[in-house]
Design goal:
five-stranded parallel sheet; 36% helix; binds zinc ion; single chain; 397 residues; alpha/beta
Length: 397
């Protein structure tokens, strides 16, 4: 017969040491078996484990040094139109409380939308916002696009843009002639004049291509982002004619190699936070690149020793960013929602050695069911990551 540990220990306590030798139950030592999880099945959605660790917990309300958040979205653009998510007045109180000196609004749009973005944020609060422009994806298949886009970058710079943002549209969504037609590759030569113009005009390119590795694998019991993909099934790029993660990153790297004079800010830890070895190789191969940490502290923080070594080694090439999106839009992605708690988590991660805490202000960890460990970075490194690296790159005082 089999007995569980509860029965076994109860029998030991009742003087049943002989059980160890005989493996047999003694009369009178009976005890009910412990309930098993299979007796009360629990849907994954309802699982809310509370950590029983008694470990130090520090709330870091303000960053130790002034912060430049190089990765935020204060609006979404379509064509020349931008739908704004906030005003400067909505954002400044949080920025002041959190010691965020400057926010870089990457999705500032183009043309009339860009002008409106600059007016709405930079003019309203000089010195507190920086605006990037975006390519005109809707014109890619038109004749003459390549030189027009390069000229458009020059016009955007004159209008006040401080850089160019490339969303994962490129590589995963942008198609030659609408649905069903081939995807346009990241290293498509049509964009060469655009990348060159950015180099010539000293406009850094903030680039996000590809996505977490798990988004390219089946949504099944082995997928570490099962919950996240369940909440956002459209974020999966498994099958359906999508290229692999590696193919996209290889195309991107060919493009980096061709445009050595253009400065790239490779968002989300080089778009491969799961593989810091690969990200390091790329930083070594492409001196024209730096990385940013937005929405990837869930990856960095579960490999804290490697992450700290990585950031210390590349301390002049790592930028602070959050990928923040103001609420209510941002509430859909708690790891990105612009509010005090989001910044406090980033600061706790970078500044303290706290262990096993949430990487996002949410009841269920939104990207995957794990928690993170603080890096406790030294002051010299913190100051560079929070501020100095971005200030140098963006030409800010
Ligand atoms: Zn983003």
């Amino acid at each position: 017969m089999s007995i569980d540990r509860r029965q076994w220990l109860a029998r030991l306590a009742a003087g049943g040491a002989g059980l160890l030798l005989s493996g047999r139950a003694r009369p009178g030592a009976a005890q009910a078996p412990a309930p098993r999880p299979s007796d009360c099945p629990l849907p994954l959605d309802d699982f809310r484990p509370k950590s029983m660790l008694h470990v130090p917990a520090h709330r870091v309300e303000r960053a130790r040094f002034p912060v430049i958040d190089v990765h935020t979205h204060l609006g979404w653009s379509k064509g020349e139109e931008v739908t704004f998510l906030a005003t400067a007045a909505d954002l400044l109180p949080v920025m002041d409380r959190k010691n965020v000196r400057t926010m870089v609004n990457l999705t500032g749009g183009r043309g009339a939308g860009l002008a409106e973005s600059i007016r709405r944020f930079e003019s309203a609060a000089p010195g507190r916002f920086v605006t990037f422009t975006e390519p005109a994806w809707d014109r890619v298949s038109q004749p003459g696009y390549a030189p027009w886009q390069a000229d458009e970058i020059e016009r955007a710079k004159k209008a006040g843009a401080r850089g160019l943002k490339v969303l994962k549209t490129l590589g995963l969504f942008l198609r030659e002639n609408g649905p069903g037609s081939p995807l346009v590759k990241v290293d498509d030569p049509r964009f060469d004049p655009m990348w060159d113009a950015c180099g010539r005009l000293s406009l850094p390119v903030a680039i996000h291509v590809s996505d977490p590795e798990a988004f390219f694998t089946p949504i099944d019991r082995y997928n570490e982002r099962y919950d996240e993909l369940g909440n956002h099934p459209d974020w999966s790029f498994f099958g359906d004619g999508f290229p692999s993660n590696a193919e996209i990153l290889e195309a991107r790297n060919r493009m980096f190699a061709r445009h050595a004079k253009t400065q790239f800010i490779v968002l989300h830890v080089g778009n491969d936070a799961e593989n810091l070895g690969f990200v390091s190789e790329n930083l070594d191969r492409f001196p024209n690149t730096v990385v940013e940490i937005g929405a990837r502290i869930g990856e960095l923080g579960r490999q804290p020793r490697a992450a700290r070594r990585f950031i210390e080694k590349y301390q002049d090439r790592v930028l602070f960013g959050t990928d923040a999106v103001p609420p209510p839009d941002g509430d859909k992605y708690p790891q990105q929602v612009f509010k005090d708690e989001l910044y406090e988590i980033y600061y706790r991660f970078l500044e303290t050695e706290d262990e096993y805490f949430d990487y996002a202000p949410a009841v269920v960890p939104p990207q995957g069911r794990w928690r993170i460990y603080g890096l406790g970075l030294p002051d010299g490194v913190l100051k560079k990551v929070y501020h100095d690296n971005a200030a140098r790159l963006l030409g800010l005082a």
